[in-house]
Amino acid sequence: MIVILKGGPSPEAEISRKSAESIKNALEQLGYKVVDIEFDKDCVKNLLEIKPKKVFIALHGVPGEDGSVQGLLEALNIPYTGCGVETSAICIDKDVTKKVLKSFGIPVPTSETFYNRKNISWIESPCIVKPARTGSTVGISLVKNREEFQKAVELAFKFDSKIIIEEFIEGRELTIPVLNGKPLPIIEIITESGFYDFNSKYKKSTTKYITPAEISEKTKRKIEQIAIKTYSILECKGAVRMDFRLNQLNIPYLLEVNTIPGMTERSLLPKSAAAAGMKFHQLIEEMLTE
Q1: 16, 67, 139, 202: which one is catalytic?
Q2: What is the C-alpha to C-alpha distance for residues 180 and 191, in angstroms, rounded to an integer?
Q3: Which of 2, 143, 207, 255 is the most exposed place for a label (fewest CB within 10 A)?
Q4: What is the set of domains in the chain, with CATH numbers?
């Protein structure tokens, strides 16, 4: 029996449930016995009763991606998909991730980290203001002027007690999944606003995804090399997705590492896998059996 963990207290819970539905359909198509359960107060009791062969984690955000659920499953001696406790704990925190990667020479945008509103003063625009430990672009803002700045700070603090103010890299939005250590096709994301926020990701039908991205072979190889190196440095497992900005000089900057990528009909990992000739159920089986 395979258990899919979904939902939870995160602002991304509804997206998690959509991911779980897609994963369940694929596993059933492959002939697996599957049950999906909510991550709630009865979760541990349900897991102990079911005694799954493996748990497919479809939780997005905290506590699914911060190592908490991974630690719980390890304490229960239940195997699970994806990255382990330490990797998850690092990657959920964009501030910590950047500091680790920067020490290994991975190019990341310049940023400052803040823990309260008192010490924050106006920073030159354009800039990105975002919570340090959320996913799915929740609470993120592109600030273009002083009037927008305070609103962006207040929004970010609604979702986290730690926020990042980061330089905005003018250029192109790219993402690359890495599956079991191997890079999949790079996707370029083109939005109406020029900024890939929550609305562009989940609500706007006008957002375009170019797969594979129309970039030079040299740039493609550079991004792949950074992605593979990052996967190794952070000791990732299974499928992860890494977001980049490519500046006007074709220099890539790594923004963040997503350890549990979305698996909905609009999600980027399945789009990339399809461009590599991999059907959705094949992708799910690769993730399950890594």
Answers
A1: 202
A2: 29
A3: 207
A4: 2-81 (3.40.50.20), 90-107+170-289 (3.30.470.20), 111-167 (3.30.1490.20)
